[in-house]
Amino acid sequence: MKKIIKTLAFACIVVAMATACSSGNNTIENTENPNPEPTVQKWDTLVALQDCKQQMSAQLFEGQNDELLAQILPDGFAEASINAFLLKGEKNIVLFDAGLGESRNGQILAKLDSLGIQPEQITDICITHFHTDHIGGLIASDGSATFTKAKLHFSEEEYEAWTTGQLKDQNETVMTMLDAYKDRYEIFHAGDTIVDGIVTIAAPGHTPGHTLYDIGDAIVVGDLLHAVALQVEHPEFSAKYDFEPEQAEQTRTAMLEIARTTHKPLAGMHFPEPYIIKL
Ligand SMILES: [Zn+2]
Known about the structure:
The chain has helices at residues 2-22, 66-72, 108-114, 132-135, 156-163, 172-180, 228-231, 245-262, and strands spanning 47-57, 77-88, 93-96, 124-126, 151-155, 185-188, 193-194, 198-202, 211-214, 219-222, 266-268, 276-277. The protein is an alpha/beta fold. The protein has one domain (2-18, 41-277): 4-Layer Sandwich (Metallo-beta-lactamase, Chain A). The strands form two sheets. The chain has a six-stranded mixed beta sheet. The longest helix is centred in the N-terminal third of the chain and has 21 residues, at 2-22. It starts with a helix and ends with a strand. The protein binds zinc ion (ZN).
């Protein structure tokens, strides 16, 4: 847990420094280049793209504290969604995950189209982890890349888990994705800063290389939470989807504490409307 807090504290410093660099208040005269390129581009506000609505069954959380579970989710489910998020900058147009995909009735491409953005305009896709409801939308039904010019970014831990590690027996979609984007992916180490100021944060538990992205004024949290109505107040509940439930609980508890301290909004891939929440 300490490592995660330390990583995020560092991330905040890096982002603060990056913001300061782009503010234009540099009083030191640059005689060699009077018009230096800004090191960090200006980003628009993060936009949620709902792929589809979802209900998370209470059964996903059974066997941990069933009495409390029944009190908090008396209808037997929590409202949820499958979401991706869009971040438009001066140079880059970044997508965080890609939902299920059109062949599974996902709405991400339709949502992008309604914003006037075509798939070939997406320059970067930051992937939180390799489950199908996050990477399915990267691949068309014929196995080709949906986003023909985008570079994929994902963590080394996630790549290794699905190609040579514990999850390699269930990696059909992952291998199709890696093949479709074979000349266009970049593997990072959690903690690296990518795409002009986006800070990657290790958040293991849901999957081995599950990654969060700190974009400065919000954090994209992937599958840190599956049922907002339950887990914001009770992070001790892990969903049956979590690969390492105890590790997921530790990560969730630490990140929620940081969100409360930093007041940064969280953007979750399974959050119901309004998709981005402030604790
Ligand atoms: Zn998911």
